[in-house]
Design brief:
Strand order of the largest sheet: 11-14-13-12-15-16
Distance between the termini: 24 Å
CATH architecture of the largest domain: 3-Layer(bba) Sandwich
Number of strands: 18
Helix content: 25-40%
CATH superfamily of the largest domain: FAD/NAD(P)-binding domain
CATH topology of the largest domain: FAD/NAD(P)-binding domain
Radius of gyration: 25 Å
Number of domains: 2
Strand content: 15-25%
Structural class: alpha+beta
Largest sheet: 6 strands, antiparallel, barrel
Number of helices: 13
CATH class of the largest domain: Alpha Beta
Shape: elongated
């Protein structure tokens, strides 16, 4: 939508081919239906939030920065607000308002929207010249911009079509994997805590093969029937590569505001107040209800042991366990459940200053189809807007030159 509207506003006749019955279906589910449309940050911060190939985006993001995106939507009549982590949302908290703003942009620019599915690209003598739709109709064009998304959330239309078109055009598609995706964990502990959301906890990720910590964060997480999810976990997944069962270990500090000594003193006070109660029934003030049975089992202390019988060593081991509540990760959830797809069209085959293919003249790429993805926080939609803007501007300039 950004690419089409930009090219049309520059005076080109533009046709947007949309496979869904309406535009912006994926926008509708972003940010839990609120649409975290960008991040109010500097260009360098955005690039640093892209784990791989961030420098490829420098031209695109410099020419259309997060602040430019905010100005763009506000000029379309969409009030915005900035929340924790510089995340930008529509003031209404309604993703539909973002879709409506973009739809109005298309309409005012004169973009023709065609509902249909592209079957193949038309390429002649090394130049893009149109597309064939699934119903056999041919749309001739001087320039083509591929903005087909990735392979995550296929119900929104992101079914990987663009990768097929890119390969047929001679492009290399880097291996696809889920990113910003929930994680599956070993054992049954997560299932027992299913539905429990933790806030204000810290998380660390360790690569057991490289024997080092690769990520840390503070915030929210969620236990599910398969493992771990929530904002911190989704961000952590972007740092995990070459996934294999047991390679990655996640450690959660359930009480990050307390030092080990302070936590031990807190537990000691709780045990003193509950000295004649069973250990299992003494943790209600310290831990969420769903977490207690798992913590008791991991502590190695008998659930029926009276608090006044628990030794100093047992108590300190309990505190250490709560500061290092670990999970062995067995894998990612399926790519269909990922927020974004990592991998895509190889960036060395795309001109970063125009988004044009280096292999096929007149063919451009924008958005998730390219091998760039970022952490959570509005960065991925900003990449879509920046690359779409650059592709739209570049394609329209070239189209005018060839007229």
């Amino acid at each position: 939508m950004m690419a089409a509207g930009t090219a049309a506003r520059n005076g080109c006749r533009v046709c947007l081919v949309e496979k869904n019955d309406r535009l912006g279906r994926k926008i509708r589910i972003t940010g839990k239906g609120r649409c975290n449309l960008t991040n109010d940050c500097e260009v360098q911060t955005l690039i640093a939030s892209v784990p791989g190939n961030g420098r490829f985006l420098f031209s695109a993001v410099t020419q259309f920065s997060p602040r430019d995106t905010m100005r763009f939507f506000e000029e379309l009549g969409l009030p915005l607000k900035v929340e924790r982590g510089n995340r930008v949302f529509p003031a209404s908290d309604q993703a539909q308002d973002v879709i409506d703003a973009l739809s109005g942009f298309l309409q005012s620019a004169g973009v023709q929207v065609v509902t249909g599915t592209v079957r193949e690209l038309l390429i002649q003598d090394g130049s893009a010249c149109g597309v064939i739709l699934s119903d056999g109709n041919v749309l001739k064009a001087k320039k083509i911009i591929l903005c087909c998304g990735g392979a995550s959330y296929p119900g929104t239309g992101s079914t990987g079509d663009g990768y097929l078109f890119a390969r047929r055009a001679g492009h290399t598609v880097m291996p696809l994997r889920p990113s910003l995706v929930p994680l599956e964990a070993e054992g049954d502990d997560c299932r027992q805590m299913m539905g429990l959301s933790l806030k204000n906890v810290s998380l660390r990720v360790f690569d057991t093969e490289k024997k080092k910590q690769i990520y840390d964060d503070f915030g929210e997480m969620l236990f599910t029937h398969f493992g771990l999810s929530g904002p911190m976990v989704l961000s952590a997944s972007a740092h995990m590569h070459d996934m294999s069962p047991g390679r990655y270990r996640i450690s959660v500090d359930l009480k990050p505001a307390l030092t080990p000594e302070q936590l031990d003193a807190r537990i000691q006070r709780d045990f003193e107040r509950n000295r004649n109660r069973d250990f299992m029934n003494s943790l209600g003030a310290l831990l969420p209800r769903k977490l207690i049975p798992v913590a008791v089992r991991r502590s190695g202390i008998s659930p029926e042991m009276k608090c006044n019988q628990i030794t100093r060593e047992m108590r300190r081991n309990l505190a250490e366990m709560l500061k290092d509540f670990t999970f062995s990760i067995t894998g990612f959830r399926p790519i269909a459940e990922a927020i974004v797809t990592s991998g895509g069209v190889k960036v060395s085959e795309i001109n970063p200053k125009t988004m044009e293919s280096k292999l096929v003249s007149g063919l451009y790429f924008a958005g998730e189809i390219i091998d760039v993805d970022a952490y959570t926080g509005g960065f991925n939609l900003q990449i879509a807007f920046s690359t779409g803007r650059l592709a739209g501007n570049s394609a329209s300039e070239k189209a005018k030159e060839s007229s």
